[in-house]
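A further point concerns the way the authors explain their paired sequence and structure data. An entry of this sort, consisting of the sequence and the corresponding backbone structure tokens, reads as follows:
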Amino acid sequence: MATRIGKSGTKHWIWQRVSAIALIPLSLWIIVAGNQYIFSDYIVAREWLSRPTINLLALLSLLSLILHAHLGLVVIIEDYTNGAIKRTLNFVAVVITTIIGISAFFTFLTFSIK
């Protein structure tokens, strides 16, 4: 299975596992630390997200999730499609995850600017 990441199934497999392992503590952190801000008003939540450490951890969580989702989409596309549709769907997956990643980055960048 050739993929975009290094054109190697092994590298793809490793990156999928690395992103999954990174998501375990990051997801737990979001659940525990973010739980107290779920019902807070916008100002309090924005103040919390504007802290550099919190902002970085939230951004890492989201980017890890986007990477992991992209890698999973690639596997599904590679396994269940072929030919031109495979190339088209891979391109669409790259475009969508790139747009989401860039949007997430700039969203969290705005939280760090007061």
